[in-house]
Every structure is written in structure tokens, then in C-alpha cells.
């Protein structure tokens, strides 16, 4: 056995990883047929297995430096037939690890109830003269899933619940909420954030169901508010308050909204132009989405060491499975061992990249996923220089075929005389 590197295999595998990245991003962005995240992640890694495996087999066909010339002559057809097995293996491992990653531990619940708290004070006539906040809120209602509930609270000097929590499982309910938002108008008065959040918590308590909840608070002003005492109920129940500061000239207003988001585990968005509110609500919706191995955690599990470890271990397992799958395709136990060890190490590196580099940004996150994927492929395919490889069939059928096709010393095996009974 020898330490070898097939640079052509490295190149073609990286190209395959690039193709898988493009297809995977289209899959994550469009979510065809509203596929659940478990299936999406499984398909994503199945695409990685498919594209990388095709690149590897093509490279070894052109330059069989790792698996040997005998593989190309005798087992190439078998390798193409085994390729679907690697794809199915990665799909299975991907769905299994994503299933574990989505399990909720430590009282963490997925967000199902969304309470929108919208500032209707007189200052909004200047900061949002076109009522863009209502349009953005209606767009969010249309995007929420059928198992979500939504409520709307408005406030100026006083706060009021204009729409209690209502399930969006029925189309007429979704339209009802949209109509309620469309009927809202800017009023006179100040900015009572304390009363608004009190009403939001009342709405959550009145629901009675043990469901995860999230608040979206939009305001353009400042009010007296004690974050150390008035947010206790939100913190105790793990309810994040995402805050949006619209055209805030007074730094005390933005500081307060940042503090509210920070204390409750939410996100603060600073918006100078009301026309960008639709984009911000879209970002909030994206962060509301399901927890996946491929995206940033934005719920209470964001800083959880448990989920960090699970993600990294999942990528180690996925990398190992990818390496094992390639070994199965080539029907070579030495390559299976080398690629599996390399896959485990590359999975560790990819997991660390995803865990510590993803930040929820729609531009940089795809680049982070691409980097993790290329690192995964590169380390795996280069590991044959660390763990030596040689010819060695995995299957008995392969060994038997090899033995029959390669008689010793170039002479055919002696024929047994079936006609002789005793001599």
C-alpha cells in the first residue's frame, strides 16, 4: 500500500461540490412542495454525495491513481451501479442527524405564536407616511405557516389588542388578520412601550396552549421602561422580543429597543427608511424558520452548547458516511478506510465552520456553506496521503471476479477430469 494523491480526483470532486452547492442553495431557497426541513437537509446531502461521487468516478476513470488500473478494466461498471447506494446513505444520515438536531431540549419550543406590536403614535406620520409597516405586517401574515397563530397589538399612549391570537390553518382567518391590519390608522399620542408589551404578554397567557411564542415590536420613539423588571415574564418563558427601530434620531430610543431585544434573546433591527420594513419582516420570518444543520440558530438555542456539539457531531458523521460511500462505490476497503477517516476530520472542520461562521446574513451564509462544503471535500480526497491505499475489494463478488479474471502466471487453471471416478 502507498500514500497517494490524485489531484484530478481532488479537482473533479471540488467541481462536484460546487455543483451540489448551487443545487442545494436553490433547494433551500425555494423549498419545493413545502418540504419539511428534515427532508430538505437529507436531499441537500444526497446531492452532495451524488455530485462528488460522479466527479470522483470520472476522475479515477481518466486517471486511476488511487484504485488501480485493474479497477478501471474490471469494476468500473459496478462502481456506477453502486453510486445510488452512496446517495441513499447520505440521504439517510442527513435526515437522521437533522431529526436529532431539531429535537427540543431544556424547555426550548419552536415558535408557533407570533405577536406583532405596532407603534401607531402621531410621530409615525413623519417616520412612516405611507404606512409601510402595515404592508410589511400583512406580507408576514401571508408567509406564516398553517400551524402558526398570529395576534396584533397597536399602541400610542395606550395599547390595545386589535386581533387576538388566531390560527392560520384556515384561509378565512388569514384574510381576517390582513383586513384588520389594513383598517389600522395612525393616531395621536405618545409611545407606551411598557403597556404594549404588557398587552402582548396578556395575549400569550390567554392562549393557554403550551406553544413557543415570539414578539415583533416596531416603534419610532422612546418611553420610560425598566428592562430589569418589566421583561421578567418574557425571560422566564423564553419568549424573544424582536425589535425594529424606525427612523430613530434619539439614541435613547434605539438603545432601549436594543436592550429589550438583548435581554429577551431577540434581534434588533435599525431601519432608517420605512420602505425597507418589508425586507426586515422577511428577515424576521427567515429567522423564525425551523432549526437546521445548514442555517444559523436564532431561537433560545442560539448559544446552546448542546446544539453546537450536535451540529459538529452530525457533520462528522455525514463526512464519514460520504467517505464510506466513496469506498463502497470503488469497492475498495483501503479507500473506504482512508476516505472515512478523512471524512470524519473534514466533517469536524465543516461543522466548526458552520457553527461559528453562520450569522443569518442572506449574502454571507451561502458563502459559508460553500466554504464548509469545499473543505469537507478537499480534506476527504487528500486523506489518501495520510492513510495509505492499495487494491483491495470490499465485496466477495469483486474478489471472486478478480481471481477468475487474473489466473496465476498467465496460464489457465487446470481442468478437473469429471470423467474419472478413482484414478
Distance linking N and C termini: 45 Å
Rg of Cα set: 29 Å
Q: How many strands, which pairing sense, and closed or not: the largest β-sheet?
A: 6 strands, mixed
What do the pLDDT scores average to? 89
How many H/I helices? 16
Which structural class matches the secondary elements? alpha/beta
Strand order of the largest sheet: 3-2-1-4-5-6
Question: Describe it for me?
Answer:
The radius of gyration is 29 Å and the shape is elongated. Strand 5 (240-246), helix 11 (251-264) and strand 6 form a beta-alpha-beta unit. The protein has helices at 7-30, 37-62, 69-74, 76-102, 124-127, 132-143, 171-182, 193-207, 227-230, 232-237, 251-264, 277-288, 305-330, 333-357, 364-382, 396-405, and strands spanning 111-119, 149-155, 159-167, 212-219, 240-246, 268-271. It contains 16 helices and 6 strands. The protein has 423 residues and is an alpha/beta fold. Mean pLDDT is 89; it is low at 398-411 and 418-423. Helices cover 57% and strands 10% of the residues. A 6-stranded mixed sheet has the order 3-2-1-4-5-6, sandwiched between helices. Helix 1 packs antiparallel against helix 2, helix 4 (76-102) runs antiparallel to helix 13 and helix 6 packs parallel to helix 12.
Concise summary:
By secondary structure, this protein is α/β, with parallel strands linked by helices. It has 16 helices and 6 strands.
Amino acid at each position: 500500500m502507498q500514500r497517494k494523491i490524485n489531484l484530478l480526483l481532488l479537482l473533479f470532486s471540488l467541481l462536484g461540490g460546487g455543483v451540489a452547492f448551487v443545487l442545494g442553495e436553490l433547494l433551500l431557497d425555494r423549498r419545493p412542495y413545502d418540504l419539511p426541513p428534515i427532508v430538505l437537509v437529507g436531499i441537500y446531502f444526497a446531492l452532495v454525495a451524488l455530485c462528488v461521487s460522479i466527479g470522483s468516478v470520472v476522475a479515477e476513470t481518466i486517471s486511476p491513481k488511487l484504485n488501480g488500473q485493474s479497477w478501471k478494466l474490471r469494476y468500473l461498471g459496478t462502481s456506477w451501479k453502486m453510486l445510488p447506494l452512496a446517495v441513499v446513505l447520505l440521504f439517510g444520515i442527513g435526515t437522521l442527524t437533522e431529526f436529532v438536531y431539531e429535537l427540543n431540549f431544556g424547555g426550548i419550543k419552536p415558535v408557533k405564536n407570533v405577536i406583532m406590536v405596532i407603534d401607531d403614535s402621531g410621530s409615525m406620520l413623519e417616520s412612516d407616511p405611507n404606512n409601510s409597516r402595515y404592508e410589511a405586517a400583512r406580507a408576514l401574515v401571508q408567509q406564516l405557516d398553517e400551524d402558526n397563530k398570529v395576534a396584533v397589538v397597536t399602541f400610542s399612549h395606550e395599547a390595545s389588542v386589535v386581533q387576538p391570537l388566531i390560527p392560520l390553518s384556515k384561509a378565512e382567518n388569514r384574510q381576517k388578520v390582513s383586513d384588520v391590519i389594513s383598517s389600522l390608522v395612525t393616531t395621536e399620542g405618545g409611545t407606551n412601550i411598557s403597556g404594549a408589551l404588557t398587552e402582548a404578554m396578556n395575549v400569550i397567557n390567554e392562549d393557554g396552549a403550551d406553544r413557543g411564542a415570539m414578539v415583533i415590536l416596531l416603534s419610532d420613539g422612546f418611553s420610560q421602561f425598566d428592562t430589569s423588571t418589566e421583561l421578567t415574564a418574557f425571560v422566564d418563558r423564553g419568549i424573544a422580543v424582536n425589535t425594529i427601530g424606525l427612523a430613530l434620531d434619539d439614541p435613547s430610543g434605539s438603545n432601549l429597543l436594543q436592550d429589550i431585544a438583548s435581554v429577551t434573546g431577540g434581534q434588533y433591527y435599525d431601519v432608517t427608511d420605512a420602505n425597507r420594513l418589508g425586507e426586515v419582516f422577511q428577515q424576521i420570518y427567515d429567522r423564525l424558520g425551523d432549526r437546521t444543520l445548514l442555517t444559523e440558530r436564532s431561537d433560545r438555542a442560539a448559544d446552546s452548547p448542546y446544539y453546537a456539539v450536535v451540529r459538529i457531531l452530525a457533520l462528522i458523521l455525514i463526512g464519514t458516511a460520504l467517505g464510506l460511500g466513496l469506498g463502497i462505490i470503488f469497492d475498495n476497503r483501503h479507500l473506504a478506510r482512508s476516505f472515512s477517516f478523512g471524512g470524519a476530520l473534514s466533517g469536524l472542520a465543516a461543522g466548526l465552520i458552520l457553527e461559528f461562521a453562520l450569522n443569518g446574513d442572506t449574502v454571507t451564509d451561502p458563502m459559508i456553506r460553500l466554504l464548509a462544503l469545499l473543505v469537507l471535500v478537499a480534506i476527504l480526497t487528500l486523506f489518501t496521503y495520510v492513510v495509505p491505499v492499495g487494491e483491495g475489494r470490499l465485496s466477495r463478488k469483486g474478489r471472486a471476479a478478480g481471481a477468475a479474471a487474473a489466473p496465476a502466471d498467465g496460464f489457465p487453471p487446470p481442468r478437473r477430469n469429471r470423467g474419472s471416478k478413482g484414478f
